[in-house]
# Entry
Amino acid sequence: MKYEEHILASAREFDVDPVLIAAVIRVESNYRPDVVSPKGAVGLMQLVPDTAKQVAALLRMEDYSLEALSEPGINIRLGSAYMRLLLTEFGEDRVMALAAYNGGLGRAREWWRQGILKPGGSVSQIPFPETRNFVERVLKITGTYQALYGDRLKAPVRAPGG
# Structure
């Protein structure tokens, strides 16, 4: 798997399933680190520069720059940290975290508050077709990657104090 070393390191650092990280990369960029979306999202995990900057500040990354977002290790680290924040925000609910990753945290919070999306809810409840499709694809690829790479990409054990 491309970028396996970066995926495993970030998964371990942020206690995120490496299979989930790999699936997000597959759907977002198809493993192309130089891709930029029409909305300005950058790199393997398609991070919006403002979000990446906020996550980098939380991590106290001194080497962060917009140009660095195209570097696989930095992009995967920031994307994985952001995924950890979203999983924590939504009680480890992958559907909600992925909906927030694609549709925006503010929007996902609103869907949650209004009861449009509920904890443990179905992907079909996601009101935006693009976000619904993204979540469906990531979850499907997660299953495929788990079958293909399950033993190699075991869920991480977070380091003590990390």
Notes: The chain has seven helices and no strands.
